[in-house]
Automatic annotation (TrEMBL):
ANK repeats lie at residues 144-168, 176-208. One of its GO terms (cellular component) is membrane. It is found in: Membrane. It is a multi-pass membrane protein. This is PGG domain-containing protein. Gene3D superfamilies: Ankyrin repeat-containing domain (1.25.40.20). The keyword Transmembrane helix applies.
Amino acid sequence: MAFVDSGLRFLGQRAFHSKLTGRLTHGEMDVKVSINDQEIWKQRRRRLEALIRADRGQRQHDPAQPDKFISPLLYQAAKEGGVDKFIKALEDHCVMEEVSLPILLGLRSPAKNTLLHAAAESDDIVRAVIDFVHENLITCKNSRRETPLHIAARAGKSGAVELLLPQGKPRCIDHTGNSALHEAVRNRHYEVIRMLVSEDPNPLYRQNKESKSPWCIAVETGDVEVLKLLLEAPNDGEDQRRSESQRVFGMSPVHLAIMYQKTDMLREMWKKKPWLFLLKDAGSGTPLHFTAYTNYLDRVKFLIEKLPTSALEQDNKDGYLPIHVACTMNHVRIVKELLWQWPDPAEFPVRLGQNILHRLTRIILVSAGIPRSGELAICKPTGWSPRKRLEPPELDRYKDQANTRTVVAALVASVTFTSVFSVRGGFNGSDLDAGFPILLHKPCTKSS
């Protein structure tokens, strides 16, 4: 503080000297504005300090009472972001309600927002009140389990984020599992992202309830610069631990980049963090498995170039290689590309002893436009892949369908014939005329 004061005094002396000589440079004009700005903030602080001292002899409301909500006018003043208007609203409310500033700052809205939540989108208001807010209120959560840091990060308010970070707990998550970093990445706020990852790299690896880490969200934005900020962030050796265990932290960002056809992002991830390409999806499939499934030939070539051994890596579920996946999906171009890695198709068996030659006939027929026969499900005990083996209950389903159709046909026939032979007016139910049509002798029933 002494250094800052002395610096301001020095700059002030220069500005005073320039005023005497009649010359004022642009830099000295900035100093003059800065000095005026400092004085304005000192005045604002004195006004707020007066509201703290105002609690002596005044009635104190218990903020824990459920019926004590923030005044709508005060809450709106915080949301609008004008710092002087907000301080004036605080002064008026303290006088009118006979409460002090700490009491007001502890009140909640019906959605459990504090005034700090409401003001988190304003750098100036956060700067004005941060020193008067209790530490517990800086990290308190609203009904959506959001802290003020979540709101400031989402809005891209770097000034508010910088003030909230020391006590703001960036690892806190909201009701959807998102941290403040998730929010900043989704909304592409570069400066806020830099601050958050510099303060704590742990949220980089935290997945939300959609199993998405900030890296995955960066891929979804399509913004390479956002992804670069995350890839270049310090991580305290966490990359090494993750690469050794190959543990998936939710959805893999490499798989997402393949799905969204973001080759530029794949190149960035390979350049900065190649261990990400070792991560597998929920089905234990590698990025090459997924690329073979999606039929993106240029991504297949990219992955084979960078990780040629991945072409011979099986998944953990069925022992499938990427070429098996390509065969299953009838992606002929991908099969041709993968065959360059090992030209003998018989060398690619899966756990049930089949290889890609078992798929050859189907691929030829599909390529020729021949439709698949629906009767194969009844005639053959197995489908095209081991995952679709037909058990006896499958045959029972066809029997049930046949029985159901027979019953429906019988009902339709009975209703049809009943309507044809029905007599208008019905039959007489009395003893003497039982069984005779009621309208037998009525002229209106005689045919013309």
